[in-house]
Amino acid sequence: MLIKRPADIKGSEITPERLYFGRRTVLQGLVAAGSLAATAGLYHLFAGATRRPPAGPGPRSLVTAPVGDQRLTTDEPPTDYDDITHYNNFYEFSTSKHDVAYEARALVTRPWTVTVEGDVQRPQTFDMDDLLRRFPLEERVYRLRCVEGWSMVIPWVGFPLASLLNLVEPLGRAQFVAFETLHDPKQFPLQRGRLLDWPYREGLRLDEALHPLTLLAVGLYGKTLPNQNGAPLRLVVPWKYGFKSIKSVVRIVLTPRMPRTTWRETVPREYGFYANVNPAVSHPRWSQATERRIGEFTRRPTLLFNGYAEQVAHLYAGMDLRTFY
């Protein structure tokens, strides 16, 4: 199949339509999305001259175990730490990727609890530090592909979501897993407005959630997760677009029905429930055939399932990926 190389994506195209057209009334005082996109390439080309320390308290080192299955990690060079921690989508704080680290510096991540409930035999609420003691941590180097057309390679630290779900013993009628971000407008300034229907929600099918690649991340680069990257606990699903990897999780619910998800409800024509990386299925406003790896100036071809097809394609056997996008 011939895939036509797209023209450079305009700044107005990489921002979700509702946000773009409402930015003057909803987001007064923020930098226009088009200006951000236009300068993003230059920022990363010359980023070495303006390195900044991580925002907020210094991260502490985490003890990790070796990855048992090497298919669960990639040997691609990781993206620079400063880029990973200062080029972030986290709309609870800001719509400007370059401002999130600063806005997130005061997020309080202790104490922090995560409730797992719904169709499970043993619903529980876990203290964050108890989770860190309970599950061995692994470093997993994963590709991250944003729906906007940029990508990174991130050395996450975490544990399989399956380990947590097996602990609460899903019931037979559970078919999906729903996730929620903390809802606290005092800490998340943009939750005070109507940019999205807060709290941020995401979801997976249960078999996706139980897949060995699906990770609950608590750190990156061997240290605790910075606030702007979703501290203290975020989901990482490397074969899906980045918005599926919900940040700052406080609630997980197993359910027989497909759960509400924020972007699918906000712009259903553009963002489906599955959100699998697929170069052959364009976003309605731009192609997904190529991507720009942060730290690189040129674009590269996008891989089906973000390069994880061998591990996950069987989950979607018989499904029309243009319909179930």
Overview of this protein structure:
With 325 residues, the protein is of the alpha+beta class. The protein is 20% helix and 20% strand. It is built from eleven helices and twelve strands. It has helices at residues 11-14, 17-21, 23-26, 33-45, 81-86, 100-103, 128-134, 161-168, 206-209, 262-266, 309-312, and strands spanning 113-118, 124-127, 138-145, 150-160, 176-181, 201-205, 215-220, 223-224, 234-236, 249-255, 290-293, 299-301. Strands 3, 4, 7, 8, 9, 11 and 12 form a seven-stranded mixed sheet that branches. Strand 3 and strand 4 (150-160) form a beta hairpin. The protein is globular and about 45 Å long. The protein starts with 10 loop residues before the first helix and ends in a 13-residue tail after the last helix. Mean pLDDT is 87; it is low at 1-13 and 17-57.
